[in-house]
Amino acid sequence: MAMTGRPPSMVDVAKHAGVSHQTVSRVLNSPDAVRADTRERVERSMRELSYRRNSQARALKTRRTGLIGVVSQGYADFGPTQLTLSIEGAARDRGYATALSVVRDARPQTVEATLDFFLSHGVEGIIVLTPVPVLIEAAEQLAARTPVVVLTSGLEPGGELRVAGIDHAHGAELATRHLVEQGRRRIAHIAGPMTWFDAQGRVEGWRRALREAGMDDSRMAEAEDWTAEAGFATMEELCAVEELPDAVFASNDFIALGAIRALEQRGVDVPRDVSVVGYDDVDGAAFFRPPLTTVAQPFREAGRAALTLLLDQAESASGRDRVFLEPHLVVRGS
């Protein structure tokens, strides 16, 4: 097709694919309503013509911008970063874009400024990503004026809020039960900062699994943060007690890495003398020494679940208001 110097239009795509422009529109807006072979032909034509949807024209016609707001506290830790990326990927897969606002407090003026920013850009809804309580009140304020979903592990749905998250108590139970099944009897836990919902859920699951096994749940120490340095220092504290634990469940993989280093410096062999299990399954966990047994979080699925809840809420008052996903254990050599 000869190019005219203007961007290709929907009509150009239709001619190229040998379909009507209504079919092209359906592929863009309701792809499941189009036969697979036809949809593939239209999508191939879009790629070959480098067709890009005109979002401004779409917004004028449909009163929809295809834009989702994301509120985050801006934590650079592995979990929040992966969840933020998962939301962006899920939105892109559904034909939406995201606008991110970092909010570090829930003061009314901050929330109002965030809402004004999003509404001025025509967002169709907001996902609030928060591992700590401070943004819950902000989410409730935002939900009074636009659809909101909270992506967190520590909040039951209520009022206008819908909740998506990961069941960290279940993940911690998997890790602890695995250690029990390995014959370990003095299982300690290095918790993350207890201001985080994630850390609280992991403590709950660790304790629940130990109590079910009739074992002591008093061997716990809280790390200052989520780093390997904090894991090292906290493991040193646990090593100072009368009897060394024979297993450690660490609240994330970096804490586990620091704990393993502290044990090795004391001449303790991992896993012969002390087994260690982490949480998150970070990139490279399989290459720790020893390869780290850990709990993998379903980050991508959590982003999709949050977006689905949001879009369902925007289109209808019905549907689920709570989706919690289960992590899974990855057994390696630690």
From TrEMBL:
This protein's record includes keyword DNA-binding: yes
SUPFAM superfamilies membership: lambda repressor-like DNA-binding domains, Periplasmic binding protein-like I
Keyword Mitochondrion: no
Ranges where the HTH lacI-type domain occurs: 8-62
GO MF terms held by the record: DNA-binding transcription factor activity; transcription cis-regulatory region binding
Keywords in alphabetical order: DNA-binding, Transcription, Transcription regulation
Xref: InterPro entries: HTH_LacI (IPR000843), LacI/GalR-like_sensor (IPR046335), Lambda_DNA-bd_dom_sf (IPR010982), Peripla_BP_I (IPR028082)
Protein name: Transcriptional regulator
Native species: Nesterenkonia cremea
Taxonomic path: Bacteria, Bacillati, Actinomycetota, Actinomycetes, Micrococcales
